[in-house]
Amino acid sequence: MVDVPHRRPVRAVRLRPVGDGELELQYRVVHGYRRAFRMAGEGPPLVLIHGIGDSSATWAELIPDLARTHTVIAPDLLGHGASDKPRADYSVAAYANGVRDLLTALGIESATLVGHSLGGGVAMQFAYQFPERTERLILVSAGGVGREVNPVLRLVSLPGAHLMLSTLQLPGMRLQVGLAVRLMKLLDTDLGQDAPDLLNLVDALPDETSRNAFIRTLRAVVDWRGQVVTMLDRCYLTEGMPTMLLWGDRDSVVPVRHAFGAHEAMPGSRLEIFEGAGHFPFHSDPTRFVSLVEDFTASTAPADWSREHWRELLVEGRPGTSAGRPDTARNREVERDMREASERSAT
């Protein structure tokens, strides 16, 4: 683990209880589309961005604890949860714009971003597009690093995915899938660690509109070969921005080796591995997750962005990946991913 430099003593905070009413969904219309979100607490803003097919409900059990010291905003991304699901642009860049616009409508100028899976890619894209509004990055099993991704997601990106997803809603299919999930857990497979959460994502696609939005989102980031966009080639721009990576060592969706690759590419980043956890470490060990987030936000100063520093980083460019570094297997993997990144960059 490498800590972010210049860590400060943990500040004294005033804890406040969170009422049940604060956890209920709220709505705001932005650009004519209804955006659902949860907002609770007081203090420095903390934005929780869920993964593909998921919603703000994935954070529900954590929000009360985090909201004791933060203003927590957990949106349902467009096409997800209770937000509208139009035929629209579901790229990570569009999602970053949507998060910016919702925060602006809520009167929040800057925040610490916590992104899970696809939400991690959105958080990284937000930091790239709007660095002046990003105080810290906390990336949880984030997409957008290496090409590898669970084969099921690659399969769903292919033609015919609508039919495949719709068959999961047929009578009796839920029971069969449930039996398969229990078998995977019984056999102690990595996929078995994530299967219950992934099954919940299937339940969140009850109609054609939801399935269409899911597939459009997936195809924006995954094809038959794997993940198609990355921020790996621009991770050097996070220099000076406190960044923490949280990953389960049994992640069946985005392999844990991506955590080490991102950690290598992000100067001064902090890496925390959840042993025995899958793709949802904040579900596996919520107490540790909350503790890490609270410690990280309390002991680091928000990023001090400047146009001059940003320009210097861009002009200098991404540091070489081999000069002065030992020829280890991990470094060779990082270099390979960097080369692939040039083909998969998203602006």
Describe this structure in words.
It contains 13 helices and 10 strands. It has 347 residues and is an alpha/beta fold. Strands 1-2-4-3-5-6-9-10 form an 8-stranded mixed sheet, sandwiched between helices. A two-stranded antiparallel ribbon has the order 7-8. β3, α1 and β4 form a beta-alpha-beta unit. The longest helix has 16 residues, at 329-344. The chain starts with 25 loop residues before the first strand and ends with a helix. The model is unreliable at 1-14 and 321-327 (pLDDT under 50).
Task: Write a concise keyword list for the protein shown above.
single chain; 347 residues; alpha/beta; eight-stranded mixed β-sheet; two-stranded antiparallel ribbon; 10 strands; 40% helix; globular; AB_hydrolase_fold; hydrolase activity; AB_hydrolase_1
Residue share in helices? Answer: 25-40%
Number of strands: 10
Summarize the helix and strand pattern as letters: EEEHEHEHEHHHHHEEEHEHHHH
Distance between the termini: 30 Å
- How much of the sequence lies in strands comes to 5-15%
Q: Structural class, please?
A: alpha/beta
The radius of gyration over CA amounts to 19 Å
Residue-averaged pLDDT, rounded? 81
| Largest sheet: spatial strand order | 1-2-4-3-5-6-9-10
Low-confidence stretches: 1-14, 321-327
Main sheet characteristics: 8 strands, mixed
- CA-based shape: globular
| DSSP helical segment count | 13
Protein name: Alpha/beta hydrolase
Biased composition (Basic and acidic residues): 327-347
Pfam families: Abhydrolase_1
InterPro entries: AB_hydrolase_1, AB_hydrolase_fold, AB_hydrolase_sf
